Amino acid sequence: MRTVITGCSMATMDAAATEYDSGHIVVEGNLIAKVSAGERGHSVGEMVIDGRGCLATPGLVNCHHHLYQWLTRGLSQQADLFTWLRRLYPVWAHIDSDLELMAARSGLAALALSGCSTSTDHHYVFPHGASGLLEAEIAAAQEVGLRFHPCRGSMDLGESSGGLPPDVVTEDRDSILSATEEAVMTWHDPSRDSMLRIAVAPCSPFSVTSELMSESAELARKLGVRLHTHLAETVDEEDFCRERFGVRPVEYLEEHGWAADDVWLAHCVHLAPSEIKRLGAAGVGVAHCPSSNARLGAGIAPVAELLEAGAAVGLGVDGAASNEAGTLGPELRQALLLARLRGGPEAMTAREALSLGTIHGARCLGRAGEIGSLEAGKLADICLWRLDGLEHSGIEDPIAALVLGTTPRVECLMVNGKVVVQQGRLVTADQDALAVELLGASRRLQRAFT
User: Fold this and answer.
1) Can you tell me the distance from the alpha carbon of 350 to that of 339, in angstroms, rounded to the nearest whole number?
2) How do residues 268-318 score in pLDDT, each as one tens digit?
3) Are 205 and 346 in a shared domain?
């Protein structure tokens, strides 16, 4: 099947930063066959998508999320991270596979509607007696049609041993490592056009033992998959690391074999200049979560400095309990605004912000050769943003319209050559039914907790 997207302006995000005022994209199967200037006619049997009035970009890449948190939005609204977690851990202890499925469906649908074609999920809450949680969110991603990189998370440092989470949501180390290896062996697809890859992801320094950090790194490298964790999100975390381990978070990471190019980290807000340089030199990626960091008052990550050091910096929505919007498109604007609050008006351009959400996100996930830019031979993950309405008409620069203006409607989102969103609506799921389902699931979780 050949599809032609024609008449659109285009930000390819390729190495040459190629842009077109009017161009076309030819898709054959699940691959981009051609990207070029000018409109293109079509032949019999081709599907044509009219891109006039739209900007084409690569599909956005979400590098950090917690889908189960869609069920607990709006809680603990004025708390820092540790207070927020202590209030919500007991609620999350009641999650089961049915609730996980409904949360993941809604969360992934919202991402698709905001231009996201690839998403991670860091699932680290496995309440005692619960099963099928990772399987549920994998099923949801397959239904919605997004490229999915779930992380088999874990916590083995409970309150009784000096950690933050209650013991009821922690697991023992042997069970974690066994379940993680089983998840990789069952689900991970290393093929070039993979729709599903698994990462190994112990949660954080304050919820994981040093032994699990080291053994998780060893397991990931034995299995050939990537590593992910939270790091340097708050001053409280830094204090915890100093008191328990005698080092700052980055040094703790380095001591346990995590300073390598198969690792990407969530947040990295509180970094010393020398730590930024070391992360960049090691090729470690960072998932920047601007809205969540602002919502929890955690601070502003040194994104410009990390980029200068050579690190890949992608964008993350983070959990919807700390970012109720749960959508990726608006994070482009948030990233740019926070960078300028930190470093002044020249700290980040609109194009640099878009690169965080596309090619840098692909680098974080180890997929820059496959997704993240519009180039012949890459997988057909393409977003068309409508820019000819009242909100954007007349803006001179379409990329400024996308990043600085109101987040545009997604006219079309294509993932692996298949249309997932058309004219601002999901074609793979019933949005209205998902909303009803989500309301029921949120209320059921609330009843279980209370």
Assistant:
1) 11
2) 999 999 999 999 999 999 999 999 999 999 999 999 999 999 999 999 999
3) yes
Q: Is the dihedral of CA 210, 213, 216, 218 positive or negative?
A: negative
Together in a domain, 111 and 226? yes
**Which residue, 134, 137, 74, is CA-closest to 105?**
137
Given its phi and psi angles, is residue 17 left (phi above 0), alpha (psi -120 to 50 degrees) or beta? Answer: left
| Count of structural domains within the chain | 2
Angle formed by the axes of helices 235-245 and 81-92, nearest 10°: 80
Q: Cβ distance 295 to 325 under 8 Å? A: no
Q: Identity (one letter) of the amino acid at 444?
A: R
| DSSP states along 98-109 | HHHHHHHHHHHH
26 and 32 Cβ atoms separated by less than 8 Å: yes
Q: Residues 197-246: pLDDT tens digits? A: 999 999 999 999 999 999 999 999 999 999 999 999 999 999 999 999 99
Do 239 and 216 lie in one domain? The reply is yes
Same domain, 303 and 383: no
Tell me how crowded residue 167 is: count the other CB atoms within 10 A of its CB. 15
Q: What is residue 370's DSSP assignment?
A: T
Rounded Cα gap, residues 390 and 72, in angstroms:
34
Instruction: Specify the CATH number for the domain of residue 35.
Output: 2.30.40.10
Interatomic CA distance for residues 207 and 122, integer angstroms: 14
How far apart CA 305 and CA 279 sit, in angstroms, is: 11
- The domain in which residue 132 lies consists of 60-364
In whole angstroms, give the CA distance from residue 351 to residue 327.
Answer: 19
Tell me the pTM: 0.97
Residue 28 C-beta-side C-alpha neighbours within 13 Å: 6
In the block, tokens 């084409």 appear at: 56
